[in-house]
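Quick note —
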Amino acid sequence: MAYAIPAMHLTEAGKALYAKVHNGAPLRFTRVAVGDGYITEDTLDITQLVSPVDATVDTLEKQVMPDGTFRMAVRIYSADKDFYLREVGIMAYDPDDGEILYAYSNYGDNADYITTYSGSYPVTQDIDIYVDIGATENVSIDITGITNVTWDDIKDKLEQREVSSLPTTCTEYDFAEDIVYEGIERCTVEYDQENDRLEIDSASNAGNKYGMAAADLSGILSNVNKASIEFDVFIPAGSRWYVSLVNLAVRPGESSKITYDTVGVAIYFGTKDGDTFLLNGDAASTVPLDTWLHFSALFDNKLKAVTYEIKNKDTGTSYMSGELDYLDYTCAEITAIEVYTWSQSNLKIANTLSVTLGDTPSNNIRYIVEEDGYRNEYIYINGTPVRIGSTAVTEIPELSEKAHTHENKTVLDGVSSEKMSNWDAAYSQRHTHSNKSVLDGISSSNISNWDGKANTNSPTFSGTPKAPTPDISDNSTRLATTAFVQELIEQVKQQITNARLGDEINSLTIVIYKITNNGHSEYPYYRYRWVSCTTVNNGTLTNSDSSYVQYGNGQQNMSGSIIGYNPNQLIVTPVTEIVIDNCLYIGSSQSSYVSQSLDTIPWADASGEIEEGSYESYQKATITLQET
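Predicted structure written out below.
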């Protein structure tokens, strides 16, 4: 029952439009807005609701009153969250300013609490709105809201149409008398659960002798993305049968009695050779047998997923609930409730079957096989029977229009052609093996370190980077860390310091004269004189001016030594220089050694006599030793 809200007050924008209306402009209400905000200012200055709520508002009745007020009865549906119905605003179209807030009312602390839709029935609130429009009759209402199928919407149409006559007998049963009771035929033969079954032939799979379709939903749920289906079912222990939600278009014509064929099946449950409840073939011992259960589910044909709950019909105790992917992905939509039995006996199925378009379940469509033997081949739309079949909705044009619910429209309005094409492409690859291979290669560590990876526009490497960080001497494509570079710089700086004068020998030049005396035939020999030298790795040559090496007659003598040089090797390298003033040296602790001209070099023969200049030929060699 609708009730009136606190008085509506015209806003400043509403007053301006009110004046325009009385000068001939039309008054066109566009929508009713609701919210849960408190008002802290003068309602005359408000231009929009304080805290709007995205709830659906449906116009039930509208009337221009004799006193110059306009009455509107509206129904407010539960939103996607709980809220207090505190604000109500009437939106209107101003020919100069567009849509404005025409009138506003606030419940304050007396707001009604409307809960979120829980999956069974929507929460609604009916209210009457009275707003001042003056003496004008030029009022139009564009408020539409959702288009639920209600008895008030269709009763006139149903009265104009003749409902097809009911059958006089139930299939495979003979009756002493046929009793039609309130439009539903009653089987006068008692239903025997143990020995008989009640055949359901409103839909069929004639080629499959073990599978019987309990209800044909194809004419109702075709091309619907989401559908809510509810029904009560009795599962006897020790029996062998399943109840399945299927797509008959892809169900096999012949099925094995031994192995249940799941082609075209979204979800199924029941029992097979035992006393354990099975859901999609898996045991679910929490669900009892030999009792009436209530099954409810929301099927999403776009995502091919079902959200379900199984509970006790009488007590409401929930036994199972969850979300599953369709068992078979060829099941494009739910077109039938199928009963599959091995023994074709011990069957009792479906009390109060409810099917709903969109996301909001209700008892607007029912297929009934009552416990006491009543059999019904009609769907119920809010209490009114319409025969099941592909024309159940479309035979009445007004009902066909009602199939486009506001919930579906809201979803579809937000889908662009680009989104659809992208969605179809992504959806087609949703369960492909290629995607699976890629995803299987991604570990948790990959994901956690993902943000630390280099960007794709990082500088190009000349080779493939490798780990770990290289050593100082490593010339490779390994990546150098900051610490590595800093250490290398320190080593270079140290080497530069060590290379200062006198600290480290980098090179050494030694000048050696080779003097050949062929005049002394008795003692031919070579003499090598170290004219000048310097330190080599801290090795010293003492008495440099007079030291020599005598090579001949099997004798040699050397008063000094140079590390790393073998004086027994003859110097054969010819040179053109005759006199060298000084030899290069490095080392602050050594004095320079001045070379002497060849003709002043003292010469000692075998007898010990000193001869000067008694040589016939000479050679000079320069040896440079460098640090490696």
